[in-house]
Amino acid sequence: xxxxxxxxxxxxxxxxxxxxxxxxxxxxxxxxxxxxxxxxxxxxxxxxxxxxxxxxxxxxxxxxxxxxxxxxxxxxxxxxxxxxxxxxxxxxxxxxxxxxxxxxxxxxxxxxxx
Length: 114
What we know:
This protein has no helices and eleven strands. It has about 110 residues and is mainly beta. A hairpin with a 6-residue loop joins strand 4 (about 35-40) and strand 5.
């Protein structure tokens, strides 16, 4: 079955950086769009960034210029480099894979202190 395993969350001060990783198994990674979503307390889950199988990329406006999504096929892994973090980036971040269906990771907490 499809598994998405995330790592890299944690606590960081405002202005700091974190890198999230998500390794996929049980899916044809090279044909799969990969993305990162986040959900803050009391808010809906929102798309943060997505990279398609053809490496087209979209970002939510609030992270443009600060976050970078990338994928490394040899490791079936997608990354989210997060720089200049702000308290409003605090959320649970979820890895997503789209190939015919949506698949989700378990989520990793990112907390940015002011």
